[in-house]
Amino acid sequence: MGGISALIFGCWLICSFDSYDPKDTITVDLTALRTAHPDHWSKATAIRALTLDAVAAANSGHSGMPMGMADVATVLFEKHLKFDASAPNWPDRDRFILSAGHGSMLLYSLLHLTGYEDMTLEQIKNFRQWGAITAGHPEYGHAGGIETTTGPLGQGIANSVGFAMAEEILRAQYGKKIVDHYTYVIAGDGCLMEGVSQEAITLAGRHRLGKLIVFWDNNNITIDGPVTLSDTTDQPQRFKSAGWAVIEIDGHDPEAIDAAIEKAKKQNKPTMIACKTHIALGHAAQDTSKGHGALTDADQMSAAKAAYGWTTGPFDVPNDVKSAWEAIGARGSAARAEWEARFETVSTAKQRNFNRVMAGEVPKRLSATVKAFKKQMSESAPKLATRAASEKALEVLNPVLSETVGGSADLTGSNNTKTADLGVFDVDNRGGRYVYWGVREHGMSAAMNGMVLHGGIRAYGGTFMCFTDYARPAMRLAALMKIPTVFVMTHDSIGLGEDGPTHQPVEHLAISRATPNMHVFRPADAIETAEAWELALSSTQTPAVLSLTRQGLPTVRTDHKLKNLTAQGAYVLAEAEGKRQVILIASGSEVSVALDARATLQDAGIGCRVVSMPCMELFAQQDEAYRRRVLPAGPVRIGIEAAVRQGWDQWLLGERGKSNKADFVGMDDFGASAPANVLFEQYGITAANVVEKVKALL
Questions:
Q1: Which string of b and e fits 652-680 if b means at least 16 CB within 10 Å?
Q2: Domains (ranges, CATH) in the chain?
Q3: pLDDT digits (tens, 9 = 90+) for 293-329
Q4: C-alpha dihedral, 284 to 290 to 293 to 296, nearest 10°
Q5: Which of the following is catalytic: 78, 391, 441, 528?
Q6: pTM, rounded to two decimals
Q7: Contacts of 652 (CB under 8 A, 6+ apart)
Q8: Is 441 one of the catalytic residues?
Q9: Do the Cβ atoms of 273 and 69 come closer than 8 Å?
């Protein structure tokens, strides 16, 4: 310690990278940095000092990134970011996304220093502790100024594409007077290694999202050691090839940072600012993999602070520095007042609609529109795949909801997510509300989350149900963040047919249902499909998965009901005639199988009730009295679904059921390549097999 300490106090730090030859050293003249820009230095040092103190108090966390990117963040917040700390949700604020979410103390320090009311010093002191809003990684909803949940690397930069697209769409709808802001991102080496980053940056480049600016924290360090252990990608060239402007700078030079941001804001395409930085700047662990994590050694912390010229105690920011930061936090109040004045000049109708969509409220006529559609479907009783029924529902819903933005991961004709009124979002049509996402299931889902988080947009996007495997990280985060993104998953069973088991989802319903705060809808016909859409588009805190068929299904609800029965999760579709001996519970395409089985059983004098269960999660939320009416004790129970059994025992064995009076008709294999009708027969998902299982239990 003595040798390094002496060097630090001499204001020269010499560190060798882990696994590097000792002669390969990095030198940083802290005195020169401090002397050249003393005001900037004091503000940036406040971030570094708070980071060291908070991580030390928690005895866990990531110190190095906030210390290395403090200069970039300081210039951004002081000179460019349009925000008002007293109004965290001001609609026309710039969005700041910390994609490298492990460096959360960078964000928490900024929010505290600039005066966000809920980010108190006590919250900083309780970093990573129970009940604190300062979680290990930024969590959306915990505090004002946290625009999205980050931590899984690459999610933030992928979210940011959706933020930038939402800004473009809303600006086209409401005008530059109302919507005109930037999205800024800090991403690290790890973010850019994640595959989703490639999906994100190529999409942003294709759509020339000029108001998206990404700062790459180019410190060449990962947890295991230097980046070169695992990657040699030329990142600037990678971004250039994807259609981005690229600016390379010293990430510790405030003048260079300022000039780069100014230049980036003038581009007509997204910009990546490559910031050469030193992880854990000024610490003994600088430029090493140890600098990535928790720097808690008291002597090393003291030495680093001395090198910074920081003389106060733990969590003690000098009054003049805190005041300077608070002035930055208040700077945007004038811009906000100007925006509010401009907002008053637009039409009352436009004001009302803007306020509605930003609040996430649906128009009053949505319910009436759904009811009229349901009546039409129950009367005409079409045989439709639920993916086609979904398209028909969207044809009447999209004109009512100006905030819907649809799309598909290169399966538009299969997912049936495009309606004629939407128009296509593109460089020359920012008002278009349909996005061709390309083969980017993960990127699409993360970007849709970004759109919803931005506000003013209800995003839905489609792929095959099997490819929830690729979309799931973003789907999970939607549930975690409590945002109502809609995932349209078609071709939802072996009914897909000839494409075979690689494309046939058998476990994916169970995976989605296992996710907390996720509504999984598997409608049986066009009427349940419309009801599912109404619920998904009205939700404020819960994302939805719409599991839809490829194959045609008969209309099972021909008796028109004004009430949204899907909202109850399950309901009695067909009652037993005579003594009730059997309850068949089914979802989606297997509801018609249950009805066919019921007809056979009734002919045999066996009273059979059919329960349609389009959403298990909503049924579980109903009061016990209702659940008891739908699933009373006594009768034999058979669950029917062309998927694995996992999740079904809650209804077959629980809820007054018994193991010796219950069975399941479904899948225990991955499927095969053959026509759908052959597959259902071969795997026993038939009315005849249901009847056989019933009789075996009676």
A1: beebebeeebbbbbbbeeebeeeebeebb
A2: 2-336 (3.40.50.970), 365-547 (3.40.50.970), 569-697 (3.40.50.920)
A3: 999 999 999 999 999 999 999 999 999 999 999 999 9
A4: -40
A5: 441
A6: 0.96
A7: 585, 637, 638, 639, 662, 663, 664
A8: yes
A9: no
